[in-house]
Amino acid sequence: MKISVKSHKEITSIEADGFDNLLSVLRYYGYSLNASCDGKGTCGNCKVIVDSRVVTACKTPVRDGMTVELFQKKSSEIFSEISSEKEASAIIDIGTTTVKCALVSDGKIISLISEKNSQESFGADVISRISHGEGNDLALMNSAIISQLNSMLKRLSENIKITDISIVGNTTMLHIFLNTPCKSMGVYPYTPAFIDEKSFDNAIETGLEFSVPLYILPSISAFCGADIVADISEYYTDSEDYTLLIDFGTNAEVALFNKDNIFVTSAAAGPAFECGNISCGMPSLDGAVCSYDIINSVPVINTINRKNPVGICASGLVDIVAQLLKNNIIDKSGFLEKDFEISKNIFITQADVREFQLAKAAVEASVKILSKKINSPIKKVCICGNLGKHLKIENAKFLRLIPDINDVVVSENAPLFSLKNSDKKLWKKIAESAQYIDISNDGDFEKIFEGSLDF
C-alpha cells in the first residue's frame, strides 16, 4: 500500500502498510505534525488535507493511493545582522516546543533562528516525549531533531564558519538529542541516564554535520535540566537577596536562589504556556494575537508584526484570560458560559480557560512551596521563556502567575545569553549545589494546588 505526501511543493510516495492511521505513518517517515495529545484524538491539531478535504490525521485510516497534503509551516528568523565575521560559535537551546540556534562572535549574538520542535507529532509535553523514549520511536525523535538542527545550522552558517557548538535543553530533550533511552524518567523514581556535562571532540559523533567540538551543559535532575542551569547563571549574583526565576515552558521550571542557596523544582504545567492544547493556540509567529484589551467594552487586539489575526500565542492568552476576569466574563472559578470570540474564527473556550488554570496553579503552587524554604522576602522575579517577550507584567500579577513584586525582569532567550558567556565553572557550580525539591512530596501540596486554581 502506497500513499503520496505533498510537503513544501514536493510530492513523495511512501509505503504505508501496517499503520493504523495517517499520523502514525507520517511521523514514522519524519513529517512534523502538531499532535499535542500524542494521537489520542482529543486536540484536533494534526490536520492535513486528504483528497481536497481537511481531516484529522490520527483519526484517518490509511488507504492505498490516497494523497496527503501537509499545511505549510513558517519558521521565524528572530534576528540576523550584517556581519563581517568569518568564524563564530554556535549555541543551541532545544526546548520541548521551540528550538533556537544562534551564532556568537566576541560575546555578541550575530544571528538567531527559532523553529517549532520537529518532534511535535510525538506529543506537546515532556511526558509524552518520555513515553516514546526508547526503541524505534526514540530513534525517530532523535532523527527529527538532528535533521532539524543540521538544517538550522547550515542556514546560519552559509557565510560563516562554525568553530564549536554548545547545547542547552531540558533533561528529556538532551537524552533524545543523544539518542539515549529516557523512559525511566516517566516512572518513579524518575531516573535519568545522565545529568552530567557532556563533551565531544567532534560533533559528528552526535549526528550533526559539523566537525567541531561540542559541549552540553549539566542538568540538575530529571525535570530540572541544563536550561534552568543556564537561566540561573544569567541572573546569579553574590548577594544574600533571593531571586525567583520562572521558566515558562511546557515543563515549567522554578528556581529560588541567592549566593548561599539554590532551590529548584519543576511544575507539570503542560503546554498551555506555549499555547499547545489551546483551541486557537499557535507559536509567537506573524498574526498571533500577542496583546488583548477590552476598553469601554471594545476589544483592542495586537498581533505579531501587525498581521491579520490567525491564532493566539501565550502572551495573548494571559491578556485574554485577565480581561475576561476583569470584565466579569469569567468568574474567579474560571467558569465561561460560552465560547468567547476574540476575532473572526478565533475563540477562547471553557477548556482553554481550564488548561490555563491548571498551568497557572502548577506554577503558583511551586512558588509557594519553594518560598517555605527561605526566611526572607523575594526581592526580584526573572521571567524566562517565549511567554515573556510580549507579556504584560500587570496581567501576570493580576492572575497570580507571578508574585506581586516590583523588580521584574524578562528574558525570552536567557539560556542563549548564558551560553554566549560560556561560564562552564559557574554552570557546574549551580548544577552541583542546587537542591531539587519534589513539590508533590510536600504535605500541603494538594491543598496549595487546589487553592491556586481559582483566580
Structural description of this entry:
With 455 residues, the protein is α/β, with parallel strands linked by helices. It folds into 3 domains: 2-69, Beta-grasp domain (Ubiquitin-like (UB roll), Roll), CATH 3.10.20.30; 76-216, Nucleotidyltransferase, domain 5, CATH 3.30.420; 227-455, no CATH class. 26% of the residues lie in helices and 27% in strands. It is built from 11 helices and 23 strands. The strands form 5 sheets. It has a 7-stranded mixed beta sheet, sandwiched between helices. A 6-stranded mixed beta sheet has the order 22-21-13-14-15-23, sandwiched between helices. A 5-stranded mixed beta sheet has the order 2-1-5-3-4, with no helix packed on it. A hairpin with a 3-residue loop joins strand 7 (87-94) and strand 8 (98-105). Helix 5 packs across helix 10 (424-433). The protein is globular. It starts with a strand and ends with a helix.
Helix content: 25-40%
User: What spatial form do the alpha-carbon principal axes imply?
Assistant: globular
Largest sheet, order of strands side by side?
A: 6-9-8-7-10-12-11
Whole-number count of domains: 3
Tally of DSSP β-strands: 23
Q: How many H/I helical runs?
A: 11
Largest sheet: 7 strands, mixed
Radius of gyration: 22 Å
Percentage of residues in DSSP E strands: 25-35%
The whole-number mean of residue pLDDT values reads 91
* Uncertain stretches: none
The structure class reads alpha/beta
Alpha carbon gap, first and last residue: 53 Å
